[in-house]
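G., the chain you wanted modeled:
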Amino acid sequence: MTDTEQTLRTPTPGDSAERPAAPAGPASGPVAEEPDPRMPRLAAMPAFVAYMGQGWGTPDRTAQVVPGAAKAAAEHRARLAAELPGRTIAVASGRASVRSNDTFYDFRPDSDFYWLTGCPVENAVLVMDTRAAKDPRSVLYLPRPAQPGDPGFFADAQYGELWVGAAPGPRDWARALGHGLEVRPLEDLDPALAEGNRDAQVARTLAELRMIKDDWEIAQLRTAVDCTVEGFAAVVREFPTAVAGGGERWLQGTFDRYARTYGNGPGYASIVGSGRHAATLHWVRCDGPVGEEEAVLLDMGVETHSYYTADVTRTFPATGRFSPAQRQVHDLVERAHRAGLAAVRPGRDFADFHTAAMDVIAHGLHDWGLLPVSVDEALSPEGQHHRRWLVCGVGHHLGLDVHDCARSSYEAYQGAPLAPGMVLTVEPGLYFHSHDLAVPPELRGIGVRIEDDVLVTPEGADVLSDALPLDATGLENWMR
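Predicted structure as tokens:
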């Protein structure tokens, strides 16, 4: 996915008072001061409350934790405590945003919170006390589910088990998470910490710690990439249906269904751009047709159940064969991509793979007669004329977030040398809009991006997504 400026916020927890519980019943609506007696509020009826508290067995409330996540989280907490001693740090899991009235978007825990806990519970807060250097204390505060005997069991649409299914409580999570993490009910939390108190230093420190992935994280990313490659294959098999009328949305739906079947879901809004739409960097509307003669840009990633995501892009000919103009563009992007990959090595500057790819792009565009200045002028800080067709960045960190570690300082993100354990994307492209009169007609409406996920190793780099070919002929053969 192309990198861009990120608007970041610190999520905060809530409780049942912050997200009003829905009245018991199939739908919510205005609550009258004097309700119609024919539609009584069930939670206000003592006989009904007593009846609903009886005759229930014990469902399976085992807390589901991704294997290895709790142990990795304990190690992450230790790293943070060593980096920020003498502090009280609160990190909240966040809560789902309102979609409409009393319906909400799917919840996904804050990435820093999950990195430190391995727990995906909404409205939870982790409090770390690092003042005792030899024995830092971590307490996870979780909301109690509403179980039989509690009126919220049937009246609370957020926590009532009759609404959301069997839900683990604090004791269940304590057993599942272990590794010295104390788990307590949310009501025990000091109100002063209830909203989380991550200041800029804590947020920056967490982002910079997360740049170096441990072995468990790298394994999660490998799984995400492998599933994504399989998802690409599932999408390509559906090209005939897309050309026959299903369009871009059929392909988007195919991948998103695959991602939800084999992972948590897509790691970001899947991009499917056919023809002229491929030149739009974040074409997430995916509401256009797929023409027989068009090239289709697919930028997609599976997010695992541990929330680590892949981010891979390839551009395919809709019916299996690139046109001469499409191949011309693809070949130049491929050369730029290979130059960028070659510059990902430990000790190299973050900017090296960007400048390596841009150098190839600028020379290629000059050879085509598209640059109004020399290559040297274009590549100078005062020029950048080649960026008319590549305004986005050429790569970014990858991990729990598709644009990972975005709260890092500039010095750590772009100023420090690449180091083993970093995972990056390399993604040059060329985007010729259909209304761009600065390019010849045969190039207008062609967009090509190639993106791979790359692990920096002690010896060099490991392209995690190399199961997908890079060259045009290889992609044509892979499609078959």
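The longest strand covers residues 137-142.

Shout if anything looks off.
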